[in-house]
Amino acid sequence: VRVMRQAHPNDIATLVDLMNEFYAESDYELDRPLAEKAFADILADTRLGYVWIIDENGKDVGYVVVTLRYGMEYGGSIACIDDLFVIPQSRNRGLSTAALLQVRDFCKSIGVRAITVEVGHSNGPAQTVYRRIGLAEVPGRQLLALALASPAHAV
Question: For 134-150, what is each residue's pLDDT tens digit?
Fold first, then answer.
C-alpha cells in the first residue's frame, strides 16, 4: 500500500506546517525560515536526501525526511530517517509503518547499504514503529554529537 508521495518545492509550506506541529509536541519552537531553507535545500539536491508527504484519503497528514551520507563501514550510502511525523488524529492506522516500508524499499532500489534513525530512549511508540521494519540498537555503540550551528528549534 502506497501511503506517500515524493515532496516538491511547492510543498514546502505544508512541510513546515507539519514540522511545526511535530516540534510543538516536544515544546520546541520552530525556526520557520531555517526549516524552509532546509526543505528547499534537500528538495533541490537528491545527493542530500529525499522528502515524502504521507497521505491519508487525499489529505496531507505527515512527512518523512531521509538524509544520505557515505559510510566506510558499509562501503556505500547510508540513509538516516531524519524526521517521521504523522498528525495525532491519523496515528495508530499503520501509516508510519507503511511509510517506513516504502522508505526501506526505495532505499534498497537506489543502492543504500544501511538505514539509521535517532530515537529518544523514552519514545517507546517510535521505537516500536522503527523495530517493525527491522531497525535495532547497535550493541556497544552510542551517538555523540557536536552542534556547530543552531538547530531549527529552540527549547
Answer: 999 999 988 888 888 88
